[in-house]
Amino acid sequence: MFGNNLFVAANFFIEIAVELTVLFIGVTFLVGLIQEYLPDETIKKAMGGRHKARGSILGAGFGALTPFCSCSTIPLLLGMLKAGVPFAAAMTFLFSSPLLNPVVISLFIILMGWRTAALYFAITFVATIVIGLLLDGLGFASQVKPAAVIQKGCCCQQATDTRSRIQRSAKFSLDLFRQLMPYLLLGAGIGAFIHGFVPTEIITRLAGPKNSLAVPVAAIIGIPIYIRAETMIPIGLALIEKGMSVGAVLALIIGGAGASIPELTLLSAIFKKKLLASFVLTVFTIAVVAGYLANLLTL
After folding, report:
1. pLDDT averaged over consecutive 10-residue blocks of the chain (299 residues)?
2. Cα(232)–Cα(182) distance, rounded to whole angstroms?
3. Residue 223 to residues 30, 73, 138, 163: CA-CA distances in angstroms?
4. By C-alpha distance, which of 185, 176, 195, 223 is closest to 19?
5. What does each C-alpha distance from 146 to 80, 155, 269, 270 come to in angstroms?
6. How far apart are CA 269 and CA 276, in angstroms?
7. How far apart are the C-alpha atoms of 187 and 191, rounded to whole Å?
8. Rg (Cα) of the chain, in Å, rounded?
9. How many distinct structural domains can be found in the chain?
10. How many CB atoms lie within 10 A of CB 267?
């Protein structure tokens, strides 16, 4: 039994580690190319410039349109911070990308219909904007580690031909990956252990319909589980068939999509503890509110 669990966990670790590595390097390379061809001032202006409210709305909209998992969102976040995008807009994007992306909205439509999906989208869209502006107003921008935003190139004149830009983007991608690789592998390892050694029955028992605290418990359980976008819908349907309430399943998936351990380990290299804790609390709150709302609408 132990050997089989170890085999399952090892396979999961290799699969996730390779997938996250390729995904992270690929997205970071694309971010590097975007920064090569788009000046920082252009990116900053496109995300609202000094207008924090407008930038936050654009950040939420951009996040909602990106079908990325949480770990591929972080390279884009770093690119925004490096370009000088307002902190509120960058944080709004960070929250909305995993919580409002097309996969999550599709899950809501499949499980609960388009009306509930539209209600969740509207509430979460506004909430991410308000939270981003609130964190900015409370001075949480100082909680971003200065060393996290890697600067590309130097102050001297750089070549602007295509080959040079590709080389600089590749170097930017690899430098950032080397900095964050230990966090990525740690998150993949913890996720693999949970996948291989934590029985599904335990999750079902703790977050089943007979437990009045099933929704917050499911949200807490979901946070350490790395749930990939392409597996969200079948996992949700399978758990509902096993007896979990719709609200608990949604809380589980929102928690896993919004604040998985791989993402948190990566963010710990970027954020100080206070901002990291605020991020987790926000995702947890959204997961719980959405879960109870779903249960209320399915009575």
Report:
1. 81 81 80 74 65 86 72 78 85 87 73 79 89 93 75 55 88 82 75 73 67 85 65 63 77 79 82 92 89 79
2. 26
3. 28, 16, 25, 41
4. 185
5. 14, 18, 10, 8
6. 10
7. 6
8. 20
9. 1
10. 23
User: Position 106: which residue type?
Assistant: S
Angstrom distance (rounded) from CA 45 to CA 50: 8
Structural domain including 266 reads 2-297
For the chain, the residue count is: 299
Closest of 150, 169, 151 to residue 159, by C-alpha: 169
Instruction: Tell me the whole-structure pTM to 2 decimals.
Output: 0.70
Joined together, the tokens standing for residue 279 give: 């991020």
SS (H, E, C) 279-299: HHHHHHHHHHHHHHHHHHHCC
Q: Which two tokens stand for residue 260?
A: 């998985």
Cα–Cα distance, 54 to 129 (Å, whole number)? 10
CA pair distance 86, 133, nearest whole angstrom: 10
Structure tokens at 160: 């602007």
Residue 228 exposed, middle or buried by CB count within 10 Å (0-12, 13-18, 19+):
middle
